[in-house]
Amino acid sequence: MRSFRQILAIASTEFCFGMRRGWPVVSTAVILFVMGASILVFSFLNMNGLPPEYAPELGGNALIMIWPGYNLLVMGVLTMACAPSIPSDRQMSVFELLRSMPITGGQYLLGKLTGTVAAVLSTSAVMLMFLLGIHWIMIGPINIPLYTEVILLSGLPLLIWAPALGVIAAVSANKRSSAVFIGLVAGLLGLLPWGWFAPPPESTINITGTTSAWISRFIYESPVNDWIWSHYGWNNPWWPPVSSNTILLTFVTVLFILLAIGFLARSWLLWKENF
Amino acid sequence: MISINHLTKTYPNHVQALQGIDLEIGNGMFGLVGPNGAGKTTLMRIIACLVRPTSGMVIVFGNNVATPQGKIAIKSGLGYLPQELGLYPDLTAREFMDYIALLKGITDKGTRLIQVQECLEAAHLGEAIDRRLKTFSGGMKRRVGIAQALLGHPSLMIVDEPTSGLDPEERVYLRNLLAELANTRTIILSTHIVEDVGQSCNDLAVIHHGRVIFRGMPRELSERARDNVWIITTDGEQPDSGLTIVATLQLQTGIQYRVLGKPSPELHPQPVEPTLEDGYLWLMQAQHTK
Question: Quick one: average pLDDT of B20-39?
Fold first, then answer.
């Protein structure tokens, strides 16, 4: 119980810092604003006098088109923005004091992770409500099943994965600047597991060679997204259909990687900092 | 009781910070003195379970610093003030203290509120309790450091340079506060200000090149310099180079030097009572000539 309260204390302080210092919060807000604004503009321009019944379809189409860009932004920017969470404590010379507390490095890491992810998710929830509200008022109703599926299977996991990856990857950094760089690299590499189990392309139309096809797939596509899109009639002509087993395997792999690097980070704190 | 046996610490860059320390530290205020790089901070960080020893054993109130259970048990009863303490600038003193109290395991909100208030008042920060830490002066930040170390009524306090950045009045107050607290616990005080140790510690150790070169009471260290401390007054020229000048005072009749060593009789040296600083310098001089 005491350990739980200690982890919660670290998490709530980190959450407050997220809200006050701002980088994770500002980045999340900007990314979601860009995404929301793109959907609104696309839908607004294409509505062009059509009745409101067309709004869900147009909004859905816009979401599907901009979603790969959102994935890139989240992994590239949010991972970077969340990475200085632990190095900030070092740079502010608070880390030594925290290490003298009756907590373990694992509890500290878990608290930091929880607080950062909570700050990102809270901001996302507020921004999402705001943007969906505007969509409803200005364009018309939204495609609720599509949005639910996208949020639960793709948006939410990425919004947990990116900050967690950033915090864990930069655990050894001494300065915020180096943490930001580590976060950027980790974020770009963090895209890979999402495309890992994608079936090989059936053809390479418009793409020269298999290697570039794979790179393209890692960066712009993920089996999870393809799986969602296929439910709404958006089958990518270049890729074969994705099975639910592949989706499950992808999530298990991502979770395993998260646990593995979390364990490595905790071991590093113990070995290097006796924490 | 803290028991340290054959303690060594070698850093990965092959710097030997501690070379076989043996110490027993009981209740009360214990002073740790030594020049920069002597190994004081390393020793204190090992006792605080922040650094792993290379060899040897440290037992703090029956708990071994090398075991995970021992580490948590020691930290549960520890108040630590690092030499370089940063604070979260956006938090108020109350918020910061509340955070530290929670980390120390004080989960009951009522107890926490009372302790935070008490500790900040003890550090003369009662009126600044709701101010953001970024508005605090250097001395006030140091006092927040002291206040957080007091949280949880620790049985062991480790304070590294607690008086640095404090004005003379605050320094005396803090010294007295620590001496008062030392009645019921062990406090390890590391400082460059030898006077602070003399005024508040009943037991001290001098560390040099990772070894304990003196262990005893402050009076015993002062006594080391007896018959070697002199006052010499000249009309301007410095005493001969074999002497260590401890203090220089400009007088109307010339310059008065307080020196350590054996001055020649032509200088008409006047013997004076040795202070703790004299004893310390005499000891260091002996080390350098070895």
Answer: 94
Token output for A159: 């919004």
pLDDT digits (tens, 9 = 90+) for A181-234: 999 999 989 988 888 787 666 555 554 555 555 555 655 567 888 888 888 877
- Cβ-based contacts of B96 with chain A (< 8 Å): none
Question: What's the helix, strand, coil split of chain B in %, to 5?
Answer: 35, 30, 35
Instruction: Tell me the mean pLDDT in the region B252-265.
Output: 88
Type of residue numbered B138: G
Characterise A209 by phi-psi region: left (phi > 0), alpha (psi -120 to 50), beta (else): left
Contact A92 B86 (CB under 8 A): yes
pLDDT value at B27 more than 60? yes
The two three-digit tokens of residue B168, written as one number: 């003379």
Residue type, A5: R
**Quick count: other Cβ atoms within 10 Å of Cβ A272?**
11
Separation CA A26–CA A12 (nearest Å): 18
- Its ipTM equals 0.90
Min distance B211 CA to chain A CA atoms (Å): 24
* The model's pTM: 0.88
Backbone angles phi and psi of B101, in degrees to 5: -60, -40
Q: Does A4 touch chain B (CB under 8 A)?
A: no
CB proximity under 8 Å: B 30-69 to A: 48-52, 68
Is residue B116's pLDDT more than 70? yes
| Residues 6+ away with beta carbon under 8 Å from B62 | none
Q: Is the pLDDT at B226 greater than 70, yes or no?
A: yes
Cβ-nearest to A6 among B91, B105, B148: B105
Core vs surface per residue A174-201: b (16+ CB within 10 A) or e: eebebbbebbbebbbebbebbbbbbeeb
b/e for A41-76, b at 16 or more Cβ within 10 A?
ebbbebbeeeeeeebbebbbbbbbebbeebbbbbbb
Q: What is the pLDDT of residue A264?
A: 97
Please provide the size of chain A in residues: 275
Chain A residues within 8 A of B85 when measuring between CB atoms: 93-94, 96-97
The two structure tokens encoding residue B269: 């040296």
- Using a 10 angstrom Cβ sphere, with 0-12 exposed, 13-18 middle and 19 or more buried, the burial of residue B250 is exposed
Say yes or no for a CB contact (<8 Å) between B50 and A10: no
Note whether B134 contacts A: Cβ–Cβ < 8 A.
Answer: no
Residue B58 is encoded by which pair of tokens? Answer: 């440290």
DSSP conformational letter for A197: T
Question: Please, how many CA atoms are within 13 Å of residue B271, restricted to the half-sphere of its CB?
Answer: 6
pLDDT average, residue stretch B116-123:
95
Does the pLDDT of residue B127 top 60, yes or no?
A: yes
What confidence score (pLDDT) does residue A208 get?
53
Q: What are B168-210's pLDDT values in tens digits?
A: 888 888 888 898 889 989 999 998 888 889 888 999 999 999 9
Chain A interface disruption, residue of B45, B50, B52, B103, most A CBs within 10 A: B103
Beta bridge partners of B19: B8
